[in-house]
Amino acid sequence: MATLKLEIVTPEGKTCSEDVDMVTLPGVEGEMGIYPQHVPLLTQIAPGEITVRRGGQEYFLAVGPGFVEITGERVSVLTDMAIRADDLDDAKAEAARAAAEKRLKERLGEGDAAAVNAAILRSVEALKGRRRRGK
Q1: Which of 32, 49, 68, 123 has a Cα at 20 to 30 A from 43?
Q2: Phi/psi at 87 (nearest 5 deg)?
Q3: What's the pLDDT tens digit per position in 91-111?
Q4: Torsion angle in degrees (nearest 10) through CA of 116, 119, 121, 127
Q5: Domain residue spans in the chain?
């Protein structure tokens, strides 16, 4: 069976580089499933969850906003955050969400408010992914 090379890069470095059967991404216009031999595409991804299928198994990653380049053989994701769902700490994610909301309420400048909103969105998406899986 044909596979895709999935590579995910964050500011901290390469967080994933492996051959997979299929990837589902949170596109800005909706979810998209990527199989081997997909038509080439360059697009944005929204904060959400990536589903990776490999060898009959699935695993999930919480991701922030970013970009993805898709070829018939490769899926390259560039994002500010990518965390495996199994590695998420609910307490830390909830604390980050609460702290971000508090900072937003303190009426920071417009640029800061955008950064805080992004932090809240990432934390909420991470929590939703964990809760959806019953963890």
Answers
A1: 123
A2: -95, -5
A3: 766 676 676 666 666 655 555
A4: -140
A5: 4-85, 88-132
- In this prediction the pTM is 0.69
Q: Which CATH superfamily is domain 4-85 in?
A: F0F1 ATP synthase delta/epsilon subunit, N-terminal (2.60.15.10)
Residue 28 backbone class (left: φ over 0; alpha: ψ -120 to 50; beta: rest) = alpha
Beta bridge partners of 25: 32
Give 6-55 pLDDT, tens digit per residue. Answer: 999 998 899 899 999 999 999 988 999 999 999 999 999 998 889 999 99
Backbone angle region of 56, left / alpha / beta, with phi > 0 → left and psi within -120 to 50 → alpha:
left
Q: How many CB atoms lie within 10 A of CB 115?
A: 14
Q: What is the pLDDT of residue 105?
A: 64
Q: Which residue shows structure tokens 């964050």?
A: 10
